[in-house]
Each structure stands twice: as C-alpha cells, then as structure tokens.
C-alpha cells in the first residue's frame, strides 16, 4: 500500500481521534486529586503515560524523585506549563531527596540556592 492508501483508511477515524485528543485537553468536569481524593485535581504530569490529575501538595510529594517531569496546571480554560518550583518543590541534592541531616545548627538556617538552571534531556528547568 502507498501512504495515500493508509491516509484514506484513516480519514473515517479522524473525528474520533480528534475528539479523544481534545477531551484530554479540556476536562468536562473538575476531577478530584487521584492521590488524596479531597482537593481539586487541576495539575497533570505530561511525563507520565496516564491521565492522572493531582492537587499541588500531592504532585510535589509524588515528584520528589522526578524533578524533571513536565507539569501543567489547569487555568479554567486550558493547561498551562508550570514549574514544580512554582508549586513549592525544593530540589535537595543528595540524601535521597531529603534535607541534609548534618545541618543541625538552626541559627544558620537551611542553606539553599534560590534559583539555578538545569539542562536535561527532558528540557531546561529553573529551580
């Protein structure tokens, strides 16, 4: 078969595929967070192959070890890109994602860098 033959076979299905794709972009009813089942699930992760929605505390907790996932937040009209950092995510280097346990001198506070840029195969991230 030629490419044209394959396209001719697909044409009757195009409306169904378009409907499914657009349905993922515009949730018909607001969903609850699929982790806590309490708050509105207005955040999704494009790096997962599922259609799960989260509230911001649950998406931050579930991405402790996935800081380079692509996150989007529902604005009421469309999903817009948002950084995990903007949701309160703190990237701790070392110690399996936790704060350094040796930082016992609370007078100095936690040492942290306000902003830095990471270039990763999944994109450019500012934390």
From TrEMBL:
This is CxC2-like cysteine cluster KDZ transposase-associated domain-containing protein.
């Amino acid at each position: 078969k030629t490419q044209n033959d394959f396209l001719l076979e697909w044409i009757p299905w195009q409306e169904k595929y378009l409907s499914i794709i657009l349905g993922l972009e515009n949730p018909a009813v607001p969903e609850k967070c699929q982790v806590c089942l309490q708050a509105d699930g207005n955040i999704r992760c494009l790096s997962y192959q599922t259609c799960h929605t989260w509230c911001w505390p649950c998406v931050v907790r579930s991405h402790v070890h996935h800081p380079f996932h692509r996150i989007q937040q529902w604005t009421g009209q469309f999903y817009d890109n948002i950084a995990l950092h903007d949701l309160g995510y703190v990237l701790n280097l070392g110690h399996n994602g936790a704060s350094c346990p040796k930082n016992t001198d609370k007078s100095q506070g936690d040492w942290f860098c306000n902003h830095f840029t990471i270039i990763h195969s999944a994109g450019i991230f500012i934390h």
